[in-house]
Amino acid sequence: MALTGLEIYKLLPQTNCKDCGYPTCLAFAMKLAAKQAALKDCPHVSEEAAAKLESASAPPITLVELKGDDGAVKVGNETVLFRHEKTFYHKPGLFWRLRDTEDGDELKRAAAEADAYHVDYVGIDLYLDGFAVEAASSDPATFNAAISAVKSVSKKPLILIAPSGDLAKAGIEAAAGSRPLLHAANGENWEEMAEVAKEAGVPLAVQAEDLDGLAELTQKLKEAGVEELVLDPGVTSYRDSLEQLTSIRRLALKQTFRPLGFPVITFPGANSEVDETLLAAEQIAKYGGLIVLEEFNPASLYALLVLRQNIYTDPQKPIQVQPGIYEINSPDENAPLMATTNFSITYFSIANEVEGSGWPGWLLVTDAEGMSVLTAWAAGKFDAERIAKDAKTFDVEGKVSHRKLIIPGHVAVLSGELEEEMPGWEIMVGPREAVDINSYLKAMWSN
Amino acid sequence: MTIEIPKEKYTGAVREVTLGATADEGGTRAHTLTIGGESTLPYLQFEGTIPNRPALALEIRDRKPDDWSPLLLQAWGEAMDDPGEWAKAAEAAGADLIYMVLSLTDADGEPNTPEYARAAVRKVLDATSLPMAVVGPGQAEIDNELIVPVAEEAEGERLLLGICEEKNYRTIVAAALAHNHLVQSKTPMDVNLSKQLVILIHDMGLPLERIVMDPTTGALGYGIEYGYSVMERLRLAALGGDQMTQQPMLVNPGEEAWRVKEAKVGEGVPENWGDWERRALDWEAVTAIALVHSGANMLVLRHPETLRRVRSVLDDLLGSQS
Ligand code: B12
Ligand code: SF4
User: Fold this and answer.
1) Given CB 3.0 to 4.6 Å as the disulfide criterion, which of A146, A371, B35, B252 pairs with B297?
2) Which residues have CB under 8 Å from B293's CB, separation 6+?
3) A324-444 sits in which CATH class?
């Protein structure tokens, strides 16, 4: 819980020396409480008071950062239980688990394939975040070699599943230059794990039977000097995951319960009775942090990445594209002209379809305030007047020599009005779904 | 240290709604189906009770649809040629109820007729003893024209009739009142609109125990986040005691997911989209799971495999409950 101005005031020297630039310590305290001043502006604050103030202002869920040789994943620092209350900030990291018992060449092949995985979703590049390499061999040298093999084909962040000091050391050595997560400290090994994590300056995951156990361990680890922690509550089922992860999130946010104020790591494929994709989906919606997949399947990964993108968009701002006239496949003045809205999903549905069909075309992207075709139409943001106005603004007459405009089939009702608004133009009603644009153009576009 | 799990205290609960009527109750269904009643957020049984499981419906049509994915045609095969057979197959696949959508036209493109709709619904009622929903093709006048005779034909069966929208609810509500049915009240992803339509329908004299609220959803990748958050907000309002948001929620991930390219199209798509069948099934199932967690009390699905997958998730979420 953040401190009030008065609480902060009690921790200040109360000498009113003005060195901070404020007339009194109280005035400065008020500014601090409002987050309009920084503590370092008071040169006289005691170390003890500074520590108290800092810890009180720390975020309720610690931000944890993993770094690869290239690229990083940040999880934690969430502030709400429901996305509509503000937004979710740090998308869960999706990792794929590899084992060092696999042959080196096979490891390289698998990691390279997954490393190259990219899908485009409404102009956003989606990919796997990294790899979790497990010391299944329990042999430090084998583990070291496996990490080197993965690193030779991928620069993505790593999670090192290495449950002993020796293995952890071997892993850290092989991962030198990056910032992996070490997995995991438990009741037995925590001291050696803490030592390795501390020395390497890397985050550490914590494993225990239940929340009590987790909280006890994080306390000990913090005392031992490891601050960046990740909780592994060991959940293996839908219900268990929902209950544990909800409890952890609530404790952190509603009670500022520091011992559990960390992001969570889960292994949705650990239990073979469970449908990994659906448990991962649950964890994306309900408070997952790092999600380690047992299986790498492009189709399922695509669905999970899109879900993650959807749940983590800011509800205040629909993803939009800039209104304007867009060229697809280098169109000339005879190419078809099509109207759509500037909602990202809408724009990319039709733009990708036209692009994939090979047709050169012009897309008139109107300013519909980021709404889909029908939503914008229902809200009066994609009507004949607006389309005609944007056609002028973006000078379509200078781009095409014909006078034909194709509108989405869903707004066929606009065609009459639009012909009135745009004298001399023929309004053609396109198909309802973008998928059908190619066959529509083949049948209807005669140039 | 012993950690106390923080529990919320809610003052409200979701209303229970029962579909279907047995012989004793004036219908012919083998059993009734009750949804809603929970006094907590989805599946948090540590702080409230969840007396009823969400119902899983399979969608069928009064005739084989023209535009369904080949993957769905494959799954249902010849059963699709006859609504009675299709309903039986859906029952065998484990559906809790049949969700029947009447077509706009017949196979030749001629307008559907009240006689045909009536006969098709009769066939389904005779073929299965599951509770049932029947909705029109989604065009105000035609919906009214088809649903009224269906309501009459199924007198007393406590069907769920729809779809009632703001511009078009009176006739369907009147038919539900006259013949002892329930209605599906659908509004476009907005908390206040959902509430308002429930109030309007209730004002016509239909008890709240006979209204199922459909807040509308989008498919994964195509607007699901809007519906997801509206559902969470509706559910929080219901638990907070807001009477007119306490209806159980129905959503249709089947229709939404199978309409989008990821599910529909097998060729000419990026290689990283992966195996078509798996992608299509995941699209429907992942859409459904997100909605399970935002509070759905009834999910309408299209593929029997999705029903099986979602069912096993619910079995676990509800623990030993049945
Ligand atoms: C998500 C959503 C919302 C979101 C907005 C999302 C956004 N940024 O636009 C929210 C919740 C805010 C919303 C609000 C409203 N909504 Co709304 N919403 C939807 C929903 C569920 C999905 C829309 C969507 O994103 N579709 C995906 C995009 C990609 O589709 P699309 O833009 O149509 O593009 C496709 C095609 O049109 C085609 N295409 C696109 N461009 C082009 C161009 C050419 C040339 C061609 C050929 C094809 C083509 O390609 C795409 C893929 O096939 C639909 C219902 C549904 N399931 O479809 C209702 C829906 C569109 N909404 C509706 C309504 C009424 C509203 C509101 C007016 C409700 C209200 N009274 O408040 C408000 C209006 C907003 C406002 N006043 O601020 C109605 C519209 C009814 C109608 N037919 O008039 C719908 C259909 C729901 C319903 N059945 O009642 N909505
Ligand atoms: S510098 Fe510190 S001690 Fe001096 S007035 Fe400001 S807050 Fe008070």
Assistant:
1) B35
2) A242, A282, A285, A286, B42, B43
3) alpha beta
